[in-house]
Amino acid sequence: MAFTGRVIVITGASEGIGAELARQLSGEKPHLVLAARSADRLEAVAADCRARGARRLVQPTDVTDDAQCRVLIERAVDAFGHLDVLVNKPAYRCTPGSRTRRISRPTKGSCA
């Protein structure tokens, strides 16, 4: 199994693609570090992952906050010794009048 024992950090893991990726990888028994803003949703995904065989660490993280990102990586390394894979899949929802921090170069259709 390609991911057995690998340390995989997934941001945006509380729902959607990030959560499903964590669930799908769990059968290969990786060490998952699940990050997103919603601690409750992360815990639910983590329970699914544990039931499927993954070791997991839940770290509530807002990826727009540099300090929280540093803590995420530090906790992952403290827990598992190193990182093998980082899946950076945060979700942003744009609504009229919302203000978001630009974290990359804007592209056509971006909300920044």
Describe what you observe in this structure.
The structure is a single chain. This protein is 35% helix and 19% strand. The radius of gyration is 15 Å and the shape is globular. The chain starts with 6 loop residues before the first strand and ends in a 24-residue tail after the last strand. The chain contains three helices and four strands. It has helices at residues 16-26, 39-51, 66-80, and strands at residues 7-11, 31-36, 55-60, 85-88. α1 (16-26) packs parallel to α2. Residues 102-112 have low confidence and may be disordered. With 112 residues, the chain is of the alpha/beta class. It has one domain (7-88): Rossmann fold, CATH 3.40.50.720.
Layout of strands and helices, then pairs:
Blueprint: E1 7-11, H1 16-26, E2 31-36, H2 39-51, E3 55-60, H3 66-80, E4 85-88
Parallel strand pairs: 1-2, 1-4, 2-3
Helix pairs in contact: 1-2
Q: How many structural domains are formed by the residues?
A: 1
Number of helices: 3
Helices and strands, in order, run as EHEHEHE
Rg, alpha carbons:
15 Å
Under CATH at level 1, the class stands as Alpha Beta
Strand content: 15-25%
Structural class: alpha/beta
The separation of the N and C termini measures: 40 Å
For CATH, the homologous superfamily is named as: NAD(P)-binding Rossmann-like Domain
User: Could you say which overall geometry the principal axes of the C-alpha atoms support?
Assistant: globular
CATH architect. name: 3-Layer(aba) Sandwich
Strand order of the largest sheet: 3-2-1-4
Assembly type of the chains comes to single chain
Number of strands: 4
What's the CATH topology label? Rossmann fold
Query: What average pLDDT do the residues reach?
Result: 86
Percent of residues in helices: 25-40%
